[in-house]
Specification:
Length: about 550
């Protein structure tokens, strides 16, 4: 009698799901070629891969990037989330809707974060990022261009927009003085002059923590996956930052693709993996092109391939373009997407380190985390530790947006104060007093101006009542309606909930209804919802969705005005 397959706790919901390969790259390719997903193309795909049409339709209905109707000449998409809202997005959107709403050739979309908070209010025309001041010219150009999707002229991978972000920019985490020196650590490991296992030790000694939000010790994660006996193993760079206010990884991808990919490849060598992936959000088209060109250079140089660097090791790196959705930043939802399923988080445990992509041990780190690996491996843990201020270790990238004079990305010593980072960004617009900040992106709690001298690090921000999170400082001037700002954040989480678990799906919607409607105030009902969602939601989205609202209520004593 055949033995029953081993049941892995936490993945019971996968029973009955179709096995790979993932159809998402094929759907992306159809949409890039045609401009949308016609039914006849889906039927043909179903026949070609011997997969039922309803499975394909289920994927399309989940992911917001997929189009089921022919596109108009131009799609003008404008963000309405917090950083853009603070910069007058609502008023600009209202004027644009009057202008383009009745236009038969223009699809006007008011939507979620585009990862361009430094040019807020952020916009795209046919997925190419533009300043809102340039949107009219971009729409006019799109009217004259060939139909979208044909010959790749205006599809996701066909544009290079926002070329300014491909400029050379020097950051203090770059160990290489010239382009010829790049991949020095990788070359040493491949040549046998250095041991990949020593890199894990260096990461542990340096105390590097995950920079994507969770802050899990990177060296411990690498060591855990390296210790797994099961093969094959995989490494994934999570480049799906999609949280309002967060765009530091985008800048790192554009200016330091070689560090990100070297960190990824060193992770592969350290844990014994042959295949690595960069999972990137589809809104990062220009940055995706930078990464693809860098991977092609690695292939041409022989540093990846069947005999990487003459080492006898096979190293393969590919790009997986996200079909959309903030939830895919959650590691298990990302893996579900890569396997070709709807991007719904898994119950944990097991964790990806033991049961990840295709059920195999998988190392997943954020863009910034991987970009810091080469310099720690090259200069050692002591050097990294010394870069911090006081008792803090290392460097940290921050995205700064909102009511600041110079929105942008800044790399500073860990332990830099909020006040110092704000000064680097030119201070509050117009010299206004500070009202509040979110120090760690949309997931983090608001803190007031009395916290300006808090040192930016994991423990210090937690002690101050917030968190380092995704490293996104959103600044609000005095006079901002802080509750309205927090409800703006809640709307994002409501809209981005995958819907898998009831507490998140229903709780976020119910709380938004209460907070947006008339009445004396949110009262205890929202506090109860927040507690239920925090305790019972499957993943971090539902657990933190009401945190910003509750923090504002604490700051303002329940008043609507900040």
């Amino acid at each position: 009698m055949a033995e029953a397959p081993v049941r892995v706790p936490g993945v019971e919901a996968r029973a009955g799901k179709f096995p790979g390969p993932s159809l998402i790259p094929a759907l992306n390719a159809i949409q890039e070629r045609v401009g949308w997903l016609p039914r006849e193309e889906l039927v043909a795909l179903s026949h070609d891969v011997h997969r039922p049409l309803y499975e394909i339709e289920g994927l399309i209905s989940f992911y917001p990037h997929f189009r089921t109707e022919p596109p108009k000449k131009a799609e003008l998409r404008v963000c309405h989330d917090l950083s853009c809202w603070l910069r007058g997005a609502d008023e600009r959107i209202a004027r644009l809707r009057e202008r383009y709403g009745p236009d038969a050739e223009v699809e006007f979309v008011e939507g979620s974060c585009l990862g361009r908070c430094d040019i807020a209010p952020a916009a795209t025309v046919n997925e190419a990022p533009v300043s809102l001041d340039d949107a009219d010219a971009a729409v006019a150009a799109a009217r004259q261009a060939a139909p979208r999707g044909h010959n790749g002229q205006h599809g996701h991978n066909g544009h290079d927009g926002d070329n300014s972000k491909s400029r050379h920019r020097s950051w203090p985490n770059d160990p290489y003085p010239t382009a010829a020196d790049r991949y020095g650590v990788l070359r040493s490991v491949l040549a046998g002059r250095a041991d990949a296992a020593d890199i894990i030790t260096a990461l542990q000694d340096a105390g590097l923590r995950g920079m994507g939000g969770a802050g899990f010790p990177a060296g411990r994660k690498w060591d855990l996956v390296a210790a797994q006996e099961a093969t094959p193993k995989y490494v994934i760079c999570n480049a799906d930052e999609s949280e309002p206010g967060t765009f530091k990884d985008r800048e790192i991808l554009a200016t330091q693709p070689y560090l990100v990919l070297e960190g990824l490849l060193l992770g592969m060598l350290a844990i014994g993996a042959e295949e690595g992936w960069v999972f990137i959000r589809h809104e990062y088209g220009p940055e995706e092109q930078v990464i693809r060109r860098e991977i092609e250079w690695l292939r041409e140089s022989g540093l990846v391939g069947p005999d990487a660097g003459g080492s006898g090791r096979r190293l393969s790196v590919e790009v997986f373009t996200s079909p959309g959705g903030y939830i895919l930043g959650e590691e298990s939802a990302l893996i579900e997407c890569m396997e070709g399923h709807r991007g719904e988080p898994r119950n944990k445990p097991p964790f990806p380190g033991t049961y990840g992509l295709h059920g195999q041990p998988t190392l997943m780190n954020s863009v910034e985390t991987l970009a810091h690996v080469p310099i720690i491996a090259a200069r050692g843990a002591a050097w990294w530790t010394a870069q911090g201020r006081g008792d803090h270790a290392g460097l940290k990238f921050f995205a700064v947006s909102g009511h600041v004079e110079r929105p942008g990305v800044y790399c500073v010593p860990m332990g830099t104060t909020v006040r110092e980072l704000l000064e680097l960004a030119g201070g509050v617009v117009g010299g206004l007093p500070l009202g509040a900040i979110q120090p760690g992106g949309a997931s983090s709690d608001f803190i007031g101006p009395d916290r300006l001298d808090v040192e930016l690090d994991f423990g210090t921000l937690q002690a101050a009542g917030s968190m380092l999170g995704s490293g996104a400082l959103v600044v609000m001037a005095e006079g901002t309606d802080l509750l309205a700002a927090a409800v703006n954040v809640l709307r994002f989480f409501r809209d981005e909930s995958c819907g898998k678990c009831v507490p998140c799906r229903v709780g976020s919607s119910k709380a938004h209804t209460i907070l947006s409607g008339p009445g004396p105030g949110p009262g205890e009902q929202v506090a109860e919802l927040a507690e239920v969602m925090r305790r019972t939601s499957i993943c971090g989205l539902g657990q933190v969705a009401l945190g910003p609202v509750m923090s504002v209520l604490r700051l303002t004593g329940g008043n609507h005005e900040g």
